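I had to read the description of the data format several times before I understood it. The format is easy to grasp once an entry is in front of the reader. For illustration, here is how one protein appears when written out as sequence plus structure tokens:
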Amino acid sequence: MSLNLDFLTLRSIFYLLRPSETYYKNVSEVPDYTAKAFNIFFSFIIIEQIILLIQNQKISFRLNDTISSLSAGIISILPSLYFRKIYLVTYIWCYEHFNIVTLSYDSVLTYVVAFLLIDLGYYWFHRAAHEINLFWAAHQTHHSSEEYNFTTALRQSVFQQYTSWMFYLPFSLIISPSIFLVHAHLNTIYQFWIHTEIVDNLGFFELILNTPSHHRVHHGRNPYCIDKNYAGVLIIWDRLFGTFQHETNDEQLAYGLVHPLRTWDPIFAQIFNYRYIFRKFKKAGSWSERFGILFKGPGWVKGSPRLGDRDALPPVKYPIKKFNVDIGFLMNVYVGLHFSFALIMFSVLSNIKQTEPFYISISIGYMLFCLTCFGKIMDKKSNSYVYEFIRIVLSAVGIYFCADFLQQVLYGSSIIFIAYSSLVYLSLAGLTFHFIRKIMRF
């Protein structure tokens, strides 16, 4: 993650690039718009919290939910440190084998056609991700936050890319991979800015575009919000296919899953629905029921409609109570500091993935262990101190034996490296003292 912020990247978040700025003949020439946008994403996150503080006269920020969302985002990107994204690999293969005619890459017509088709493909993928239980098992990670802010946009599933790729393959008949990749990036990053409550109704644009208001409905767990507003950029698809729903002021929106996730464990947030499906699958009495468990809606049970009985959806209870575990101010500061350094390391790792495969493998394992430890601390698990002690010891060993590499993934800054080393050794001293005190009590 570089520290450069540029106007072109800012415009790309709102899909405001001129067609001529997206003309690339080869895939290798296409900028990684998503990676470039992360600096602006984090700037928006800070600005959003400042605005909310001014509007509400109180701090709306919840560290545990923010770390949970960013942890999911980190985990979702880990496979790309090794492999090209599956949607691009499969698209290129189909293009090379089945392409009929290729629209010119440097044409306004191609820009418009690609924009419309890829957005339409996203609509149908997104709809399937809500209406097919096996696909929902991946997508539910994104909906598991009970907050609705810019960090929610980054809460993604590591498995979702393995369910989305097939919806774009038909476009390889006429659209080159480079142009497909441009619009896949732009379609994705457009959806960042609509994850917020600070933007109200946008008037005329509400008729055409997917806006924060429309997407708030999509993330609501109120019964009237379920299975609505699947759009990526254009809300016209929902209007055309009967899945559109206005936001109403009559009912406060409650965000998250119909049955909320009650943990900050980042790994569990990725896999818990697969476990639930597996258990139902084992208990099913017939193969037709097993088929329904996998390929009908998440709320489907034997004898109900394909998407389940909407009347059986639990009503929202007011006042809305969000899952929270109070770990105290000092522990929040502790987790926040350590997570910040982990985030810095990950942001740099993503840029050196092709040159350090051994260190990347070690770092991915370490990163997953870090996120697991943070989750245990925020959940106040009884074994969290043991996990954290092991993590800090591993960190201290890494500082001693891999100082050059660690400094490289800390922006090459001696100051940041010294600050991180100091934090690790102070934490090691504190945790050692904690265990000595516990031992002496016995």
The radius of gyration is 23 Å.
